[in-house]
């Protein structure tokens, strides 16, 4: 159920949204190096790219290793290129090399915990208690909206299903935050 206010916000929200994608994968980064579009082996990156390009403008893609400095550099590069929304995929697990969530939380000016909560709830409906291991988040950094998704193709599809139609509404609020 949606409120009148939410519907009004969605109506006046920007429709031309510039998006970027960052895939974190040590093995794929070593194999492919620097590329402009997701390679065939980056299934999750391709899912993001194909779904976003149909609705929004995709202005950048990066494939990087699981390294905090690489992630910060990639995020800042995408922001310099004008990204309003940045999707990351991969590096959200619980091993020591999984650095996405902690790195992005260190950057966020505001975290939107609701995204991760809804993501885990939807994961729980599919996976049961195994969803405890699921980590996803979203937040605002330098007036851009960043969504961190796991690397699994099913998780990326789920995350897109949750957020894709709300991007304009979220960007409207990010722009208001920017003007304060």
UniProtKB/TrEMBL annotation:
GO cellular component: cytosol
GO BP annotation list: Mo-molybdopterin cofactor biosynthetic process
Gene3D superfamilies reported for this sequence: MoaB/Mog-like domain
Domain of life, per lineage: Archaea
Pfam families with a match to the protein in the record: MoCF_biosynth
CDD domains: MogA_MoaB
Transmembrane segments: none
Domain MoaB/Mog: 20-170
NCBIfam families in the record: molyb_syn
Protein name as catalogued: Molybdenum cofactor biosynthesis protein
Species assigned in the record: Methanothermobacter tenebrarum
Organism lineage string: Archaea, Methanobacteriati, Methanobacteriota, Methanomada group, Methanobacteria
